[in-house]
Amino acid sequence: MSTLKADTVTTKSDNTDLTITGGGTGVPNLEAGFKVGGAAGVPTASIQDDAVTLAKLAAGTDGELITWDASGDPAAVAVGTATHVLTSNGAGAAPTFQAAGGGATAFIASITASGAASVDFDSGLSSTYKNYLVIATDIIAATNGSWMWARTSTDGGATWDAGASDYQWQQSGMNSGAVRSSHDFADNQMVIGTNAAWTGIGNAAATNCILQLRIGNPSGTTNYKTCVWEFGGTSYSTGDEPFYMFGAGYRDATAAIDSIQFLMNSGNISGTFKLYGWVDS
Hints:
Elements: E1 35-36, E2 39-40, E3 65-68, E4 74-77, E5 85-87, E6 96-98, E7 105-116, E8 119-121, E9 131-141, E10 148-153, E11 167-175, E12 178-187, E13 190-192, E14 209-216, E15 225-234, E16 242-251, E17 259-264, E18 269-278
Antiparallel strand pairs: 1-2, 3-4, 5-6, 7-18, 8-17, 9-14, 9-18, 10-13, 10-17, 11-12, 11-16, 14-15, 15-16
C-alpha cells in the first residue's frame, strides 16, 4: 500500500471536479473530523434534499413528537395520556398533550352487560375531571318489578360501600298518571327508580329504560360524593306505560371515590353503560 502526502491537491485544470476513486471494491476513507470549506463536518448545502430518511434519524421514545425549543434547537414533546390531544402553548413554548377542549365530554369506558350481577366501573373516576357522566341504554331487569341501585367504592371496586347508613337519596317522578316520590336518609345504596310507589321495571324484550347520572368531584376529600340522575322508560306493572324519575343522592362520607357500581335490588341486569369525563372548558 502506497501513501501520498501533500498539503494541497488540486485538479489538473481549472473548472473541473477533483475525483477520488477507490480500487476494486474499496472506497475512499475520510478520517474522522474532516473539514469541508474549512469547517468540520458536512455543511447543510452539501446534503441533498430528501436525503435523510427515517432510518437515519436517532432513535427516540415511542409516542413522542419532534418540536423546536425557544432557542430553536430540536426537542421532543413528551408522550401524552390516552385520549389527550396535541395543544399549542403559544409562541416560545413547546406544545404539550392535553385533555381535548371544545367538547362537553371525553369518553372513558363502556360496559355491555347481559344478565350480569352488576355493572362495575372499577376505574375511571379520578381528579382528571370534576364531573363524570354515566349514560346507559337498553336497561332490562332479569326480575320483573325490580329497581336499580348505585354504590361507590374507594379501593377500585375491591369492596363496595354498603353500610346501613352509607347513603342518602330522594327522588320524584311520574308513573301511571300520578306523581311519585320516595326517599331514604340512611340506606345501603342510592335507589334509582323508586321502591315505594311503583313496582319497577321488568324483563320483557320490548322494555327499554335509559339512565343519565352525573357524579360530582369524586376525588375531592372535603365533600360528599353527590350524584344526580334522570331515569325513565317502560314500567313493569302499568301496562307498559312510560315512567320518568329524577333524583339525587350522595355517599355520606368525604373520602374520595374511584369507582361506581350499578345493580338491581333483585336479580341480574342487562344494558349498555358508558362512562364519560365532563370537560371543564
